[in-house]
Amino acid sequence: MKIMSEWKRIESGINSYLETTKVICQYRNNADLQISTPKDHLKKTEEILSKINNFITNFERTGLLISIENVKKLLKKIKNGSEDIDKKSGSHIYPLLIDSFSILADIREIIKYDLSDTQKEIRRHIGNAFVHLQYSIIADEEIQKKWHSVWETEVPQKEIKFETMGRNHLLSHKIWAHKIKAPKEETDLVLKELEEDPNLSPEGASLTEWKIANNKKEYNHVIDIALEQSHLYTERCLFATKLKNTIYLVIVSQEKLSDPEDREKDGKIFRIINIHTKPKNTSEQAKKILQRKRNDT
After folding, report:
1. How many Cα neighbours within 13 Å face the side chain of 101?
2. Would the pTM of this model clear 0.90, i.e. be above it?
């Protein structure tokens, strides 16, 4: 995975910096044993910070770096503390060195924890499946006709047909969509199952709600309905299944609608996915979606 290989390179640099910092602090009173001057070593934080910032820019949208705001605060703190290094000397350098050690160690552990969470990997996998679905509709004329033809069916059947085709697509990504029923409520349960994976349990599942929007005016209203229905369902039925807190609201439309931000309610994240069946500039959109898919993987 691109994000993991990139992080391993940055983590290796952080580890090297931390080890050198320990040596410098350990032999601060013995210049003969110093492997680098404290000031020169502290300046190396700028290169590490630049790499971490680029990493965040490139991979923030994958959804894996869920603690990213905490990392940004720490980056700002270490940047402010290391300003005007050339004007400082002697005993003023070592406190900065110790601060940089502590903050970089915290950043390393936060990102390591985020990337080690298997649920985030499941969320990334599900997100890529939806990106692939939209790309297929744009790039493949037969798939586009199949999806767009559903709009000609009777109203009660449209949502069901879109939902069924979407479930079949998820299945091709080894994401199993199960139907769970409760009084007056029905929705999809999405579970990524990998062979011989110890996490083959409802803990690896995420809820999805499929709706249709005929135009832009309906869009926000349909999102609100989907959010309320799926939220109600999680409250009544999903407590016992130990589902995680990312819920996908899939809104199918003819033309591309906006990509709204995730919504949050009672600690649950509602991720809104717009699947449009009648793209305009197909070649340009296909390129953008393919690039987005490459960035996510």
Report:
1. 17
2. no
